[in-house]
Amino acid sequence: MKTLVVELGARSYPIYIGAGLLEQDEPLAGHVAGRRVLVVTNETVAPLYLDKVTARLERFAPVAVVLPDGEQYKTLADLNRIFDALLGQRLDRRTTLVALGGGVVGDMTGFAAAIYQRGVSFIQIPTTLLAQVDSSVGGKTGVNHPLGKNMIGAFHQPRCVVIDIDTLNTLPDKELSAGLAEVIKYGLIRDTEFFGWLESNVDRLLARDPETLGFAIERSCRNKAAVVAADEMERGQRALLNLGHTFGHAIETGMGYGSWLHGEAVAAGMVVAAELSRRLGWLGAKDAARVGALLRRAHLPTQVPAGLGADRMLELMSVDKKVEDGQLRLILLKGIGDAVIRSDVPRAAIVEALDFCGAGG
Ligand code: NAD
Ligand code: GLY
After folding, report:
1. Residue 352 C-alpha to ligand 1 middle, in angstroms?
2. What is residue 147's predicted lDDT score, i.e. its pLDDT?
3. Which one, 7, 16, 64, 266, has least CB within 10 Å?
């Protein structure tokens, strides 16, 4: 087992990465605060892993709430199912919530923990690659609004993150690829060497070679932990983690939540960001081509859906959380491993890049 630490002073916490971690009581049980546990999961993950997790937590008399599966249920209305369970079981402030599932379950459980009785503890057990490398680390929690992705939320850090790599054995191929989008993102924004390693190892990752997956997860978590430790509340450089996300969130909202996977939308968004960076003269043509090539090899989409169109994309992007004082801020690339935040990109250049990447039909 590898242990990394997200350094946040009094709120620092460990990330445990290894195979078979759900077969042993520690480290999970040792991080429960209080006497009771509520495990939040969904209807797909529950039959696979819920019994294992409750067995580890028996001494905390665990109860479970099983949510419907899907991004379309990441809503304020569905969040109430967690509060119904907490209040129905008379669970008090000394309860720990455990998120067992992908990013949807993790974001909803974390948000429920942030606001239930003004805040209780929670633990992340991410079971998708995307959640293991990204959403379970860093304390961003929340739900979607029909007008914008992740628009209702809070920062609330978990007490620990337990990553059992074995859970990836049951993950559908399409979901594995979606997770690879976020892995590739770390290479693009701050880790040139890792990007090169991914170019050499993407086939082994798709074949689920455990050692290769373990390395990619650890390296991704190291990158994420470093960024979060430097800028927990996203006052500056944490925004770099959103490379491709402004375009990606517009695709997710525009196509209807659950229609495109988050990682798929981010992949297409990173291609638009690379193309825009090339048009602005910052990224060389060869490097822009490497971005699309690696994403394609990871079986990810590299085109914006034609049905949306550049104008609709820009309208959807105007409700992004990175919009400040009406100014759209974009994450762009000055090279592979070198991302920047810019708020001075001409609208015409964005439209041209979107059209070039498929939005023009
Ligand atoms: P997801 O939670 O919808 O999970 C994907 C699918 O895999 C679901 O059908 C789920 O039931 C299933 N699943 C989960 N684990 C499985 C397993 N081990 N075996 C078989 N099936 C399994 O999607 P996701 O890609 O994990 O997360 C996407 C969400 O995460 C989005 O809502 C996105 O906004 C959010 N996100 C949040 C952050 C953050 O910092 N908080 C970062 C990135 C993404
Ligand atoms: N996924 C973006 C962030 O955690 O900041």
Report:
1. 32
2. 86
3. 7
Starting at the edge strand found earlier in the chain, the sheet holding 95-101 runs: 2-6, 13-18, 161-164, 121-126, 95-101, 36-42, 63-67
CB-based contacts of 321, cutoff 8 Å, min separation 6: 150, 151
Residue 150 and residue 186 in one domain: no
Cβ burial, residue 113 (10 Å; 0-12/13-18/19+): buried
Q: Which band of pLDDT confidence, cut at 50, 70 and 90, is reported for residue 174?
A: very high
| Helices within 127-209 (DSSP H only) | 129-130, 173-190, 192-206
* Measured CA distances, 94 to 36, 160, 276 (Å): 7, 17, 49
Q: Answer yes or no: are the C-beta atoms of 278 and 290 closer than 8 Å.
A: no
Which of 36, 26, 164, 13 lies closest to 95, judged by CA? 36
* CA 286 to chain centroid: 28
User: Do residues 95 and 25 both lie within one domain?
Assistant: yes
- Is 238's C-beta closer than 6 angstroms to any atom of ligand 2? yes
Is residue 318 predicted with pLDDT exceeding 90? no
Q: Would the pTM of this model clear 0.90, i.e. be above it?
A: yes
pLDDT of residue 187: 98
% of the chain surpassing 70 pLDDT? 98
Ligand nearest the Cα atom of residue 111? 1
Active-site residue, 238 included: yes
Tell me the average pLDDT of the chain: 96
Domain that holds residue 59: 2-170
Phi (first) and psi of residue 186, to 5 degrees = -65, -40
Q: What are phi and psi of 272, to 5 degrees?
A: -65, -45
Of 170, 199, 214, the domain-final residue: 170
pLDDT tens column, 237-272: 999 999 999 999 999 999 988 899 999 999 999 999
CATH number of the domain that 349 lies in? 1.20.1090.10
Among protein residues, the one with the nearest Cα to ligand 1's atom 21 is 171
